[in-house]
């Protein structure tokens, strides 16, 4: 709000306010009672009060910090000097003089987009004071000597979580937009926000499940995941979807997509305008995709190799029966790419060359630099996860969702706290956030194998250190021509880590780097005209050397990939109708597996 502009003040209706608060009190009492009852029955009080080992990490950091008081005092003096400068410049502004900010938020920091953060001297002071404190806190913990790498990363990560949580934008009295709205609506925004909060607590059965979008605005198969196709085969772990062609002729060699099972496959088929699947069909590919089951306790013992046998290998057999084609081109996305690479090594050992080209979207094979997800991988936390999975038979999808949301807390947590609870606004309908909230579970055996052998021990990158179906996996035996697509701002699969993995194969590798992150870098249709990508005809050992000599191209990387994969198309054949293939149609796409929701 501008400094001399008086807002319109709306007095609250005492009758409506009383009714609302009564309703909220009744709902709160029921929620608290139910939650405490469940906690007691679960024996929560007897559990480790710090299962993540965060307290231990910070205790070690504090001990080492106090061992060097001179360094700590220097950091304090720097902060005091910054604050003194801020006071001086704020005083100048109060007297109508121009002054430059001591510190400014990052360009992509949307917390301070309201004009009052700059125009109002008081809020500008609050903003800069917070930014100075945040910078000091994070730099101080980052410069502590003697911490092992994992502890240092954990301290840095959770320090940032604390710093983000304490932002002035997250509180009524220090957020000018919220304060202005509260005055203008007579506090109706806060009452509505409290109702939203209780609704989210109720949806999470006592645990907060922040609503990121209008869940009633989307329905899988109705206005999301709507590319026409048929389910032509299924196992306990997946349904195989074949999509209806849109061109008179198609590539002779089918395209098989192996998505991750951490989320639903339809990230590649959100809506017509941003569907990679529809675009690929329109380019003349016969597209098949594996739609993974959302497992329950009955599938607790399904392991990583079961996803290979009942997923990728079963799909290959089914595609041959449907189309008569033995060979395919394949795509693996994230964890699906890790599975595809492992399967290629298994197939190489079995002299099975049915996959003629392999594309990897944001896929890690070498987990040496696993990014911020490695913060959650240590013995304490793995033991906790395995204990939870032992009770249920799977890892609850909400646990995975919370972990990924913490990687971008300002965008995926606190922005919704402000919008939903402080401003009292309804969540905006957004297909990507609907997909993001459509959580999936992880079978206990598979997830434990994946976390320990790949994230914790990095065994997949070591020849023969992991075995699937009795076959030692050695990625160096993979000679399949490969296309690696990574994203420059990917927090889940850091591009320099995926680049290391691209060097594990013996066959020809084309590496392409897209702008943006794990999702937007992949789901970037050409028609959008967004972002850019980098290519290089060479593959030097160091990722920085690759980027330094790469060529930047504006727009989507999709056509670049299509030009590459088309060299493995094996000619053209008349379009294939899923209803006239070699296997009976089971149901329409997207299939029943994709429609199972656990929210």
UniProtKB/TrEMBL annotation:
Superkingdom of origin organism: Bacteria
Keyword Ribonucleoprotein belongs to the record: no
Residue ranges annotated for the AB hydrolase-1 domain, each copy included: 282-524
Keywords: Acyltransferase, Cytoplasm, Transferase
Subcellular location: Cytoplasm
Domain Poly-beta-hydroxybutyrate polymerase N-terminal: 108-280
Name of the protein in question: Class I poly(R)-hydroxyalkanoic acid synthase
Organism this protein belongs to: Azospirillum formosense
């Amino acid at each position: 709000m501008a400094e001399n502009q008086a807002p319109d003040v709306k007095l609250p209706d005492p009758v409506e306010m009383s009714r609302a608060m009564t309703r909220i009190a009744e709902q709160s009492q029921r929620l608290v009672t139910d939650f405490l009852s469940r906690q007691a029955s679960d024996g929560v009080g007897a559990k480790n009060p710090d299962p993540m080992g965060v307290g231990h990490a910070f205790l070690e950091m504090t001990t080492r910090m106090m061992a060097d008081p001179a360094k700590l005092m220097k950091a304090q003096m720097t902060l005091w000097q910054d604050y003194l400068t801020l006071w001086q410049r704020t005083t100048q502004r109060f007297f109508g003089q121009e002054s430059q900010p001591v510190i400014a938020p990052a360009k992509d920091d949307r917390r301070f987009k309201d004009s009052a953060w700059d125009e109002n001297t008081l809020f500008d002071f609050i903003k800069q004071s917070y930014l100075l404190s945040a910078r000091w806190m994070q730099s101080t913990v980052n410069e502590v000597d003697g911490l092992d790498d994992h502890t240092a990363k954990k301290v840095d990560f959770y320090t940032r979580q604390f710093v983000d949580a304490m932002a002035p934008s997250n509180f009524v009295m220090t957020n000018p937009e919220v304060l202005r709205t509260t005055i203008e609506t007579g506090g109706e925004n806060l009452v509505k926000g409290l109702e939203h909060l209780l609704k989210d607590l109720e949806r999470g059965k006592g645990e907060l499940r922040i609503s990121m979008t209008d869940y009633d605005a989307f329905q899988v198969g109705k206005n999301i995941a709507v590319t026409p196709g048929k389910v032509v085969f299924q196992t306990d772990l997946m349904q195989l979807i074949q999509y209806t062609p849109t061109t008179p002729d198609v590539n002779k060699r089918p395209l098989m997509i192996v998505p991750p099972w951490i989320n639903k496959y339809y990230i590649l088929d959100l809506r017509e305008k941003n569907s990679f699947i529809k675009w690929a069909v329109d380019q003349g590919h016969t597209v098949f995709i594996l739609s993974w089951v959302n497992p329950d306790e009955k599938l607790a013992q399904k392991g990583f190799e079961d996803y290979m046998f009942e997923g990728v290998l079963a799909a290959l057999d089914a595609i041959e029966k449907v189309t008569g084609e033995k060979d395919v081109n394949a795509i693996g996305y994230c964890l699906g790419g890790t599975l595809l690479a492992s399967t290629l090594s298994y197939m190489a050992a079995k002299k099975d060359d049915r996959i003629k080209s392999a594309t990897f979207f944001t896929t890690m094979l070498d987990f040496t630099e696993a990014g911020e997800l490695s913060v959650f991988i240590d013995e304490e936390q793995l033991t906790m996860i395995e204990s939870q999975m032992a009770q249920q038979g799977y890892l609850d999808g909400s646990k995975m969702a919370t972990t990924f949301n913490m990687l971008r807390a300002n965008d995926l947590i606190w922005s919704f706290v402000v919008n939903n609870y402080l401003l009292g606004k309804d969540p905006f309908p957004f297909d990507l956030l609907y997909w993001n909230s459509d959580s999936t579970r992880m079978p206990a055996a598979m997830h434990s194998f994946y976390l320990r052998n790949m994230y914790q021990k990095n065994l997949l990158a070591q020849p023969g250190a992991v075995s699937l179906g009795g076959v030692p996996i050695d990625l160096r035996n993979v000679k399949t021509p490969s296309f690696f697509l990574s994203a420059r701002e990917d927090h889940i699969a850091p591009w320099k880590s995926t680049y290391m993995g691209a060097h594990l194969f013996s066959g020809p590798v084309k590496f392409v780097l897209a702008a943006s992150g794990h999702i937007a870098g992949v789901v970037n249709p050409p028609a959008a005209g967004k972002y850019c990508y980098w290519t290089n005809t060479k593959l030097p050992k160091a990722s920085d050397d690759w980027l330094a000599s790469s060529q930047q191209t504006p727009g989507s990387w999709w056509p670049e990939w299509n030009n590459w994969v088309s060299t493995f198309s094996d000619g053209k054949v008349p379009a294939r109708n899923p209803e006239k293939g070699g296997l009976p149609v089971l149901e329409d796409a997207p299939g029943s597996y994709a429609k199972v929701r656990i929210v």
